[in-house]
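Most newcomers find our protein records easier to grasp once they have seen one. A record pairs a protein's sequence with a compact description of its fold. An example says more than a description, so a record of this kind follows:
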Amino acid sequence: MTTVTTVTTMRQKPPPDGRFEGRRVVVTQCQDFMGPAITSSFNQEGAAVLADSWNLHSPGSSEALIAQAGHIDILVLNLMLRNPRTSLLETTDALWEAQFEATVHPLYRLICAVQPQMIDRRAGEIVAIGSNNGLRGIAPRSAYSAARGAQLSYVKAAGFELAEHNVQINAVAKNFVSNPSSYPEEITSSPGFAQCLAEVPAGRVAEGWESAALVLFLAGSESDFFVGQVFSFSGGWQT
């Protein structure tokens, strides 16, 4: 019998090359989820980043953000609300609606608000940061999974529609990536987390910059052939 041992080492981030010099980028909910890693990566690549921390739950707030930002080359839709992890019977209308108000409605409103300027220029990149919970059924997270699934479905449809205007919309569905909201160090270093990690073929949690590198790729001109696609980033947890 052969024993396989997974060795976890610190991954080294490649040096920046300034490929987004002069590009104007908006990153929503910059302090949560993948916001810090994405903002840092764009800054290191020379982009002019508006790292937004507005509460975008109410109607009108998304449109106001886009208006204030002005010219936007790249919009990163980093939206999240903590997963309530309630069973079907424990999920109230309020819990259900809160997930959609935080992650689905702002995504729709932000894309609608930014698309006129991108269509006029025939140029623009939109990347939504989603979750594998929208692709793979898992309990007890029905409300969270439903909202994440709605995000990904909208990206597919909107990406198809805007492709003829040379505006690309794609999504990253992530899981098991280090971030301050879902996988902080106090969780990933806990003894019980090893049982969760056993489901991940890669055998480790990805570092934030690794997920951000995929976002930067989708925000660059080299990915213009991708239209309304969802890229799973989970170490094989969902393929």
Notes: The helical segments are 35-44, 61-69, 93-103, 105-121, 142-162, 185-188, 193-197, 208-219. The longest helix spans residues 142-162. The beta strands are 24-27, 48-51, 74-78, 124-131, 167-174, 230-233. The chain has eight helices and six strands.
